[in-house]
Specification:
This protein has 398 residues and is of the alpha+beta class. It is built from 13 helices and 12 strands. A 12-stranded mixed β-sheet has the order 1-2-3-4-5-12-6-11-10-9-8-7.
Length: 398
């Protein structure tokens, strides 16, 4: 007979040999384990330090310290508290209806939320290896409900964890959490001898001809020069407005980056960060923030001058230059952040799924939350995603 998993009872059992403590960033700085957190991720502990220092936006940053039976910290799991709009990723008509309702009920579908993960990027589990990460997840799952109630949070969300963690995070599903897809990243195989080899081998003839036509048009204009740098502090006043241009055109927004974020990233993590900057007639018209780890380059944020971006096809121009640089420097994969899926589909990218794990701290209210989540999850309203060949992985098992 299958036994029902009782998270409160599990918490009592686990607590006999380990514990979880909540600390502030100042307290975390006295923990030796933090300097070793997320060692194999491009966004290691330094990135979380930077995010807390430069992106406030109403986020209340905290950290779970996971300790073994000797009281030694074996993992650190960042989280933050915020007032979350549950309808932020839904269709336009749902948001419009919610806006009308909120005239009478201001907090409709808005909840104080404990969000595990990173405020500016996907989440990861800290731990020395896969076995330890699974054990750490089980410990956190056993106590997080009680911790959230103590912090007056109504909702708990594990924010955008890659599908590789589905096995480790199954314990959260056993504790009443519902897994739904978040807007996925994308991945592209760039293991080709050159960009032209990629065009000829990977793309359809129609897409290939369209791309080359766009490049020829851009080349007929004044010359565009690219540079690669690690620190954008000297040019931050030129590139930050370009980031805001892209941010303000997006229909879905979460974090809003600051000038201090861009400047601090290159200074604190020069081994992980590359800024690509494009100039025309001495004026910056585009930039791309990329991060690197292993054989992969990650396209994180893009800034464009929309006065020339469409005429020069800067999105594709920047894509070509970054991929060409990455190929020349031995990178075999390119990962990109979510949204703007149509060009990525034609460029032969695949989806790189990210998961949300959600539950209400009230047992009674968690039942309707389970029913509602599949109707309001963000991928439901993107018409391009189902066209990707691996779309089923968004909901599929590990």
């Amino acid at each position: 007979m299958n036994k029902i998993f009782d998270p409160m009872r599990a918490g009592e059992i686990v607590a006999q040999r380990s514990s979880v403590e909540i600390v502030s960033h100042a307290e975390l700085m006295r923990c030796p384990r933090w300097a070793r957190a997320f060692p194999n991720q491009r966004k290691d502990h330094r990135y979380y330090d930077l995010v807390e220092d430069t992106i406030r936006q109403g986020f209340d940053y905290r950290y779970f310290l996971l300790q073994d039976e000797r009281g030694e910290v074996v993992a650190v799991q960042p989280f933050f508290l915020l007032d979350q709009d549950l309808l932020a990723g839904t269709g336009r008509w749902i948001r419009a209806s919610a806006h009308f309702i909120r005239r009478l009920w201001p907090r409709f579908m808005q909840m104080r939320t404990l969000m595990v993960g990173c405020a500016a990027g996907e989440g990861h589990l800290d731990g020395e290896d896969e076995l330890s990460r699974q054990a750490n997840a089980q410990l956190l799952a056993s106590v997080i409900l009680r911790q959230a109630r103590d912090l007056k949070a109504k909702l708990i969300v594990l924010k955008e964890f890659p599908a590789q963690y589905r096995t480790a995070l199954e314990c959260f599903s056993q504790c009443g959490f519902t897994r739904v897809p978040s807007l996925p990243m994308t991945r592209l195989n760039i293991g080709y001898t050159s960009f032209d080899d990629y065009l000829d081998t990977a793309l359809s003839s129609g897409t290939r001809q369209t791309m080359r036509r766009k490049f020829r048009k851009a080349e007929r204009a004044s010359a565009i020069e690219m540079s690669v740098i690690e620190d954008v502090t000297p040019i931050i006043d030129e590139i930050y407005p370009l980031y805001l241009h892209v941010y303000e055109r997006s229909s879905l927004r979460f974090e809003k980056l600051t000038k201090e974020y861009f400047c601090g990233l290159g200074r604190r993590m020069p081994d992980k960060v590359r800024f690509f900057v494009w100039r025309q007639n001495g004026k910056i018209i585009a930039f791309s923030l990329c991060m690197i780890e292993g054989d992969t380059i990650y396209s994180e944020y893009l800034g464009l001058d929309y006065r020339v971006a469409f005429d020069l096809h800067l999105y594709y121009y920047a894509f070509r230059d970054v991929v060409t640089w990455a190929m020349a420097n031995g990178y075999r994969w390119m990962h990109s952040s979510g949204l703007n899926y149509d060009p990525k589909l034609h460029l032969r990218s695949e989806l790189d799924p990210l998961d949300l794990y959600v539950r209400h701290t009230s047992e009674f209210l968690n039942t309707p939350i389970k029913w509602i989540l599949p109707l309001i999850e963000p991928t439901r309203y993107d018409k391009t995603l189902p066209q990707f060949p691996n779309y089923n992985e968004l909901w599929g098992r590990a």
